[in-house]
Design a protein that fits this description.
The chain is of the alpha/beta class and about 325 residues long. The chain has one domain: TIM Barrel (Alpha-Beta Barrel), CATH 3.20.20. It is built from eight helices and 18 strands. The strands form five sheets. The chain has an eight-stranded parallel sheet with strand order 3-18-17-12-11-8-7-4. It has a four-stranded antiparallel sheet with strand order 5-6-16-13, with no helix packed on it. Strands 1-2 form a two-stranded antiparallel ribbon. Helix 6 links the parallel strand 17 and strand 18. Helix 6 packs across helix 8. The protein is globular. The chain starts with 15 loop residues before the first strand and ends in a 15-residue tail after the last helix. Bound molecules: flavin mononucleotide. Flavin mononucleotide (FMN) binds next to strand 6.
């Protein structure tokens, strides 16, 4: 369908529309893999991206899990950071100003242990500066009011969380867990309760075993699996959600490290993509993906990236 051509085109329209949020290009950082503000700023200016997505923040400070927090896995990475963070108020005072200076569009990821925690986070963010263009709701967190079952594994709990954040005065993006057999039902519940976009997907539940220690490789035991091995799962999640909700913007994330991976995700139905684990290999991975998207479009004579959204659906 798309032929390689050596001809160069003068400019390619990379604009990406995620509900009411307009991004200059479809590449974002993935939550938890690029820090809170300036951690990667010696490698690139986040203003070059569509948006910078923060590590998930709660209204309270949280210590996170014991080390080791990351470990290699076959074709993947395992992590169990345990949502360590300084709390939203601290972040807004100390970190947000640095990010605003870069002139990036900012997406704040939030999390909580209870529905009430999400509500408190939304209240704090309601008065935040306009540079925060959207709130990404991380529902891959243990719900302490329901036997630590992840919010994102239940359509009801997901609905409660999305309702709780509705007064944040920002578009709400919900980041879905892939560890479910009823993704479309849970996504439907997020949408009907106010999600403007879906971010697909968070990590898969995984584990590594060290033969030397006869024990698990991560300090917390289990953790989240990310990187290349997650890519097919993310692609399928995007594909299925696009089939079910063709008018809802989708953000694809999982195992993207090259421009061609991003194009595949867009063809499956994503309007934008995020780069996570690849940034641990190359801190400039987001820019590599962005440059290669541009090159791919030039080579294939694609004038607008939007033209590619969902084309794999025929
Ligand atoms: C070290 C690490 C920390 C992460 N922390 C968060 C987080 O705080 N919130 C969140 O929603 N996702 C978090 N994620 C998941 C990523 O945002 C992303 O959904 C996942 O890693 C899949 O993308 P990737 O394969 O490109 O890494 C984390 C991933 C890693 C590797």
């Amino acid at each position: 369908m798309f032929k390689n051509s050596p001809k160069r085109q003068p400019s390619i329209d990379l604009f990406s529309q995620i509900g009411s949020v307009q991004l200059q290009n479809p590449v974002m950082t993935a939550s938890g893999t690029a820090g809170y503000s300036s951690e990667l700023s010696s490698y690139f200016n986040p203003a070059q991206l569509g948006a910078f997505v923060t590590k998930s923040l709660s209204w309270f400070a949280h210590l996170g899990n014991q080390a080791p927090r990351v470990a290699p896995a076959r074709g993947a990475m395992l992590n169990s950071v345990g949502l360590q963070g300084p709390g939203l108020q601290y972040w807004m005072e100390k970190e947000l100003p640095k990010l605003i200076k870069t002139k990036s569009k900012i997406v704040v990821s939030i999390w909580g242990f209870k529905v009430q925690d999400y509500l408190k986070a939304a209240e704090i963010l309601a008065d935040a500066p306009k540079e925060i263009v959207a709130i990404e709701v991380n529902v891959s967190c243990p719900n302490v009011e329901d036997r630590r079952k992840m919010f994102g594994h239940s359509a009801t709990a997901t609905a409660e969380v999305v309702q709780a954040v509705k007064d944040c005065k920002r578009p709400i993006w919900v980041k879905m867990s892939p560890n479910v057999t009823n993704l479309v039902d849970i996504a439907s519940s997020a949408i009907s309760n106010g999600a403007q976009a879906l971010v697909l997907v968070n990590t898969l539940m995984g584990m590594g075993i060290s033969t030397q220690n006869a024990s698990y490789t991560l300090g917390a035991g289990g953790g989240g699996l990310s990187g290349p091995a997650l890519n097919g799962v993310a692609l399928r999640s995007v594909y299925e959600c696009y089939e079910a909700f063709p008018d809802i913007p989708l953000v694809g994330v999982g195992g993207i490290s090259r421009g061609s991976h991003a194009i595949e995700m867009i063809m499956a139905g994503a309007s934008a993509i995020q780069v996570g684990t690849a940034s641990f290999v190359n801190p400039r991975a987001c820019l590599v993906v962005l440059d290669e998207i541009r090159q791919w479009c030039e080579q294939n004579q694609v004038k607008k990236i939007k033209e590619l959204i969902g084309v794999a659906h025929g």
